[in-house]
Sequence to fold (69 residues):
Amino acid sequence: MAMGGSAVLLASTMVTYFEGLRHKPYKDGGDVLTVCYGHTGKAIIPGKHYTDEECQALLERDLKAAMAI
Fold:
């Protein structure tokens, strides 16, 4: 099912509100390395400071992947 631009905007707003923004990677409650707006994955570099632009790009990539399911 395809989602329109307003659905993407709503999803983005909700994720940023509930996840918050963390520029440095951290272990979440499940001991999973996480950064930015709740992004996880093997490509996260421990100790790196992620920029706002990098976090926005990761969020957009994560939302696209979630909506493709």
Remarks:
- Residues 5-67 form a domain with the Lysozyme fold (CATH 1.10.530.40).
- The mean pLDDT is 90.
- Helices lie at 5-19, 52-67.
- The CA atoms of residues 3 and 44 lie 28 Å apart.
